Amino acid sequence: MSCTKPIQLQLIIVYLVTFSLANSVSNALVSISTGAAALYIIFDCFRKKSLGGFDAPVYIWKCILCFLGSILVASIASGDIPSIKLAWNYIYWSTPFLLLSYLCVDSRVKNIVMYAMITSVLFTSGYSIYQFYIKPVGSRIGGFYYNPNFFAVLLILVLPFLILLFYANLNKKNYQVTSIITLSAIISGIFALYLTGSRGAMLGFILGSVFLSVLYGVKKRQFKTLFITLIVIIGVGFIVSFGNIVGGLSRSYDMERVYLLESSYNMWNDNKVIGVGLNNWKDEYQKKYILPEAKDRKLVIPHNVVACFFSATGIIGGVGFLCFALGTLLFLMRMMNNQPNNFFFMAMVWAFVAFSIHGLVDVGITMKSSNRLFFALLGITVASLKWTWCRDVDLK
């Protein structure tokens, strides 16, 4: 299919935005590509004399606005300027949803976004594997990231898309080269995930696949296939969990996470409605709420996103976040049911569950890079509703 110059520019921008957000190695590239995307959308709206491209389902907009609006309201109510600024940052981090839900409506982008994810995973995991050979044995590997957990959360968002792309094109003769490259990215990405030693990310990744398998198996009434799939997934999870996991299965700071939850509850209990302020968790914890038995007295986050929003933004922000999370999951499941051949929704369900589980033990949507990537993938997935899905899903 031939492409006009505006479409060619659009495809380039989509690739750069997706690639930069999928690895977040360069903040400059993220800023330049998203800025170019915003300018292109303004140009496109003037060219078409229409805002019709902004037609994502109202339901998902309500979910997003419920979350962002609630933490902004709680922050304004607190009167704390840094917290208000951080709430605005959350709104800014969500703009990839707006950009990509507009730019990806044209079905010609579906191969571009997948190529961007493939090259991103090959790029980051390749460096991670290089570090594996030069660092001391037993080191947790974070690739370009100082914290291995940060790298892990990006991987568990992208890998489900690559795995389901590979499965969709598995028996297609015209996609043998693409399938080999995709498989290479999957293998290197999973190995890089293992090297991070992030137990929450690996657990989320496995449970996300179990959740998706149950949904798909029950819908298709393929109970034998479902049973075999679950046995394989649980077996792999068992091997990873009880094998020689990088960093060990049990770690010295595990009880610290429990203390953090107790401190977060105490913080919320004293500030039930609006919390201590979105930007104030660290200061409040270290000044007043750290438990005597806690050994690490310099922690800056509660390592649980639900506890974070309830303690920092009270019932207003905490309930807003839960409504967003549950509403988004229900939306994805419903769309997966409506478009059974659209593997983007299946991948997004898997990624969302993995992302949410990881957020219960570490960072999730509270981290800038994973927040931006999540909303980018959600925007692409929502845009895929406009694509034509044939019986066989591929990248034509």
Describe this structure as you would to a colleague.
72% of the residues lie in helices and 0% in strands. By secondary structure, it is mainly alpha-helical. α2 (27-48) packs across α5 (95-103), α6 packs across α8 and α7 (148-168) runs parallel beside α9. The chain is globular.
Strand percentage: under 5%
Estimate the mean pLDDT confidence. 86
Low-pLDDT runs? 390-396
How would you classify the helix and strand content by structural class? mainly alpha
**Radius of gyration, in angstroms, nearest whole number:** 21 Å
Overall 3D geometry?
globular
Q: How many distinct beta strands?
A: 0
Supply the key terms:
single chain, 396 residues, disordered C terminus, mainly alpha
Topology:
Blueprint: H1 5-23, H2 27-48, H3 58-78, H4 81-93, H5 95-103, H6 110-134, H7 148-168, H8 176-196, H9 199-220, H10 223-242, H11 254-270, H12 281-289, H13 305-338, H14 343-359, H15 368-383
Helix pairs in contact: 1-2, 1-6, 1-15, 2-5, 3-4, 3-13, 5-15, 6-7, 6-8, 7-8, 7-9, 7-14, 7-15, 9-10, 9-14, 11-13, 13-14, 14-15
In short:
The chain is built from 15 helices and no strands.
